[in-house]
Amino acid sequence: LLLSITFQALFQCLSTFDLPVFLEAFSSRSTKVFLPEKFVTSCSFLSSIFAMSVKPIREHTGKALLHRWLNEYSEGKHRYENPGVLVTPAVLDKTSGGTWEDLLEENPWLKEKKLVAKPDQLIKRRGKAGLIAVNKTFEEARDWVMARMCKEQKVESVTGQLTHFLVEPLVPHQQEEEFYICMHSLRYYDEILFYHEGGVDVGDVDSKASKLQVKTGEALSTSTVVSQLLGKVPSEKQENLASFIVSLFKFYRDLHFAYLEINPLVMLSDNTVVPLDMAAKLDETANFLCAQKWGEVDYPPPFGRAAYPEEALIREMDGKTGASLKLTILNDRGRVWTMVAGGGASVVYADTVADYGWGHELANYGEYSGAPTTEETFVYAKTLLSLMLKHPHPDGKFLIIGGGIANFTDVAATFTGLIKALEHYVAEIKEHKIQIWIRRAGPNYIEGLRKVKIASDKLGLGVKVYGPETHITAIIPMALGLSPEIPEPDLSQVCGPPVRKLVPNAGTKPSTQKPAPPPTAHTIVTSTPETTAIVYGMQMRAVQGMLDFDFMCKRKKPSVEAMIFPFSGNHYVKFYWGTEEILMPVYTTTKEAVTKHPNVSVFINFASFRSVYETTMEAMNHKSIKTVALIAEGVPEQQTKELIQVAEERGVGMIGPATVGGIKPGCLRLGNTGGMLDNVVMSRLYRPGSVAYVSKSGGMSNELNNIVCRNSDGVYEGVAIGGDRYPGSRFLDHFLRYQDDPKAKMLLLLGEVGGIDEYDLIEAVKSGRITKPIVAWCVGTCASCFTTEVQFGHAGAQARGDMETAAAKNKAMREAGFFVPESFDKLPEMISKVYVQLVEEGVIVEQPEGETPQVPMDYTWAKQLGMVRKPANFISSISDDRGDELKYCGIPISEVFKNDMGIGGTLSLLWFRRQLPPACCKFIEMILMVTADHGPAVSGAHNTIVTARAGKDLISALCSGLLTIGPRFGGALDDAARMFAHALDSGVSPKDFIDKMKKTNQLIMGIGHRIKSLANPDQRVVIIKEYAKQHFKNTPVLDFALEVEQLTTRKRANLILNVDGCIAVCFVDMIRSCGAFSREECDDLMDFGCLNGLFVLGRSMGFIGHYLDQLRLKQPLYRHPWDDITYIQEMAAANGGA
């Protein structure tokens, strides 16, 4: 019980945040946090706030890793002796342990060599900016660093504080000894760029460097390096330089670098190879593989951004919850703030703000999604509001609260936290003229919007609320006054599927469609109503959602044939097929599942990022598996590349990683795609339409379903390929399928910044391979508002060149003939325009809408929505594990610890349903202490010891001891309490009580001890008796029992009031005199056996102690000595003769 309470309290402490206290603690750390005094126009998104991305590291980190591992990867041929030392603001604090004196003591070479000093903050072209000090003594380097430490510096168009410097030994060399080398990751291979000249003036290496592509999984040889890269290097240097490059490539690949550039790489006259300047990026998702090799890695923010304590608070919360909580402050004086649910949706909102010309006022970027709790939402919203209130603006500010259509997040629950934040800052919100606009959809959204609207009216905030009937970003131009305000929806009922009128003039215009080319083979097999799947992982909700979708689509059989769960034996689990229950087999191995279900062609893998690689590889070994879907986020890029290679070699289609799945109305739903059933109905996903789409974002797929349904006849098929840099299948793979499928009439693409997959699609359109109309948009256009590197929520959402920007892609697609709107906000209009054109040309033949199917709602969800009720099977009045915090009799566990209730107070809550006075709680603890043990000889301890020595487990040994408790051992407390209380209440004298018990031949429970007497009292009795006399209001039952003791000891000295009797009578006096119980309740407690319960609870401590003691002493099996047993053989023989 104590351990349980302790861990509950620990968890509660870890999950509770006090914003002012946190900020004060954060700001008072010895390492200073430099907050901006004014808006930094060059701010960018923190690449380090997202766990699923390639992240740049400091030069010192990269060189320290090379110093640690180069010797090993080169098998002793090469060494990198000195990676330098990192100088931080700790030099300003004499107590930090990082002062110049400390650095000099740890690195005496600083005084012995000439030095180079430079900032180490991801700053490019430092030499041209005058930020490199060369050939300096220690004192000169120190003075150069100190003159710039924590000072603002402008580098090109970016201004920021210099806080980290690298000081390293000078390497004297000649210009002709400099080389350039770069290694970076691509989809099918790693590419090495080498140029025989290096340095700041190396120029455009992409165009003039020699390039070597190393296929995924292949090794690199020195002969290949010499022949393909080192043709212009002097022959005498080639062998050693090639050896270094091979070792460097092993280092790069094994430590999961995604980018490693050294310029210049110097090869001295003695053939020593030294990296002078290094830029590197690690695949942070490989942390679980490389943590020991990496050590502590610092992922710095881009130069030009300062760290905010509020960001650290949200990052701290994000690390302690299953939800996704992100916050990056772009412009703390900005007027437009967003609170958006979903990674893809957060980018879309930022884009729309920028597309309408308000990018300079965009204050933040982030998300709250993944079903955050009420408390987490409250802290997140309160943090945002506190930031908004820091810098007033005369024209007020805007808080845009939105998101895509949630899959499973209870919108009402999260909005309860939002309402708490609004109530907390209501006066300040009005004073600062903050307008709040909300657009939200998903489970229980109508109740959430209704709650917010009621709270808004009560608080006088004028909040505007909209649901899925309104386009996801429509509130932005309305809030900014750029479009007319749409009337708020009726919140009395949820939004149903749209009712669309048939397009007039259908088939009246000539077709503008180009002739379709011949179809080709496809890796991903298009699903049919007969396609079935195996699900890896105990994903009960996902499987039930798939079966409900199947039933709604009128499939003849479920789309899931089996599940795989390696951590339990083969068994069956129950699911609903409509209103009927069915059994589904669960296997421990993929091999057995595939063998017993040979017709399955789809493998849906819910394994975590740690095991998805191995489980997917195993699945692809089976020829019957044609498509695999990898749901996990955070899969290392190298593992993904190997999976892609194997999948393509074996002709297996691959969706993901980091995908929600895909959906084909009427045929198949992969995992949780489409969300809950009400969203499936609202978007009419139960029957096929004419629009086939592909999206990077899984969260935005629900929104696309809604947009397509409201602006066309619906979705034919939709796939979210995943947001990683190298998705298993690309846009082109799916669009070629759609092109060759005559039922897909119109195509829709939602791409994003980063990568070049859109250009493959552009080439397919230009070449005539794809002729169907494509409506397209790439999110991430807001990146143009910022001058430094941008990293959005997806691992692949980062531009590595001008052509990878969203703006460049949208422009290229528009020029190639795609239908590209002006912004994402105009996407619905573009879809409607193209759809109407296809109907008018007769390409799409509309059908009247049929009856909307009905699927039974799960009872749990219906009850949560308040739609049903039923009597409970159990009633509990002592504890409640619902909500954010465990409660004992209505008191939160945190309060139990805050008020120092202890074991006695906790027991009083759980046993008596009330908080007893401190003296009573102390008495309960005393009972537990004095009953904890009475030596190894008593029956209960003896049984426990014998069982422990028989090799049984702790629970068995404890139970064997507890089963001896009864009237003869330890179980007399309740009877003693009843006897003495009844005698006192009946008015008999102690003498008459004794006489009556003697006449009826009854023992007086609680009287008698084996060796103790009045002259030699039991100290346990003395302690309890004195405590009761001192702390209880009155003790009539104890007094009566002591009078009985005076009479019984006259007959025999050891007939004293023993510890059981003393505890019993004092307990009765306690509950009768403390004022917490009625007389009837006191009698009930005695009848219920709670006194014996106290003995059981206390003595369990002793029994467990005896069990552990026997194990600690390694005692053998117990056998009772034969000479301690009286054998009566004769009697047995006589009876036998009879």
- Structural class per helix/strand content? alpha/beta
Main β sheet profile: 7 strands, antiparallel
Number of helices: 41
- Strand proportion, as a percent range, falls in 15-25%
Which whole number gives the mean pLDDT? 89
Q: Unreliable segments (pLDDT under 50, ≥5 consecutive)?
A: 1-52, 790-799
Number of β-strand runs:
35
- What Rg is obtained from the alpha carbons, in whole angstroms? 38 Å
Cα distance spanning the termini: 57 Å
Blueprint (SSEs and pairs):
Elements: H1 2-14, H2 19-27, E1 54-57, H3 59-73, E2 85-87, H4 100-106, H5 109-112, E3 115-119, E4 133-136, H6 138-146, E5 152-155, E6 158-161, E7 165-169, E8 178-185, E9 189-195, H7 205-208, E10 210-215, H8 222-229, H9 235-254, E11 257-267, E12 273-275, E13 278-283, H10 287-294, H11 309-318, E14 324-329, E15 336-341, H12 343-358, E16 364-369, H13 374-388, E17 397-403, H14 411-424, H15 426-431, E18 434-439, H16 445-459, E19 464-466, H17 475-479, E20 533-536, H18 540-552, E21 560-564, E22 571-577, E23 580-587, H19 590-596, E24 602-605, H20 612-619, E25 627-630, H21 637-650, E26 653-655, E27 661-664, E28 668-669, H22 677-682, E29 691-695, H23 699-711, E30 715-720, H24 731-740, E31 746-752, H25 757-766, E32 774-779, H26 806-815, H27 827-840, H28 859-864, E33 879-880, E34 887-888, E35 891-892, H29 893-898, H30 902-912, H31 918-930, H32 939-949, H33 954-962, H34 973-986, H35 990-999, H36 1019-1031, H37 1036-1051, H38 1059-1073, H39 1079-1088, H40 1090-1112, H41 1129-1137
Parallel strand pairs: 15-17, 17-18, 18-19, 20-21, 20-24, 21-23, 24-25, 25-26, 29-30, 29-31, 31-32
Antiparallel strand pairs: 1-13, 2-7, 3-4, 3-7, 5-6, 8-9, 8-11, 9-10, 11-12, 11-13, 14-16, 22-23, 27-28, 27-30, 33-34, 34-35
Helix pairs in contact: 2-11, 3-9, 8-9, 13-14, 14-16, 23-27, 30-31, 31-36, 31-40, 32-33, 32-40, 33-40, 34-38, 35-37, 36-38, 37-38
